[in-house]
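Comment thread on ticket #2218

A.B. wrote:
> Attaching the input chain for the structure job we discussed in standup.
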Amino acid sequence: MAALAAFGGELLSDAGSMGAVVPSSRVLARRIAGCLPRQTDGYVVELGAGTGVVTQALMEHGLQAEQVVPVELSTNLVRHLRQRFPELMVLGGDASKLGALVAEHLPQASGRVSHIVSSLPLRSLPLPVVARIIREVRRLLPPDGTFIQYTYAIGCRNYRPLDGFERLATSVVWMNLPPARVDVFRFRPVD
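C.D. wrote:
> Ran it. Output below, let me know if you need it in another format.
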């Protein structure tokens, strides 16, 4: 119930920053988490952690608390996430400055981010912002690192150019309001 209240409060105070009008479903969150290995050597950074639905699914998937790093811009939602997941290092900040944010709060993470999961509304953000976010994702991921993004544009499979990424899988989650598509990309640095 606290998650719904946090989401509703954020929607009322800053609707323009929200990528959805309802929180992601547990079914969608489990689908996203299921795209990752149960064990990984590095960190799993979650962009746009919101109320923590995907964060919870990542934990239930078997990832260790010290590996899951939720990132959220909204100070209200950061507060909510820190209360809900006191065992996690929740980072409050802008995903377009992700490298600096991670370096500041997790200096030992350099070169140790294996996967990035994004709930950010990349299709509705301005192109320059998206370009900065993707640039930060590329900087943090190692070759063959995984980038998982979901979108409500289930019929359109053409993302804005993700240079250096190869799509590995795509699937639609119908049990979400609205239905969503989960895309899994592998980072392939361009020479």
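A.B. wrote:
> Thanks. Noting for the ticket: The chain has a mean pLDDT of 86.
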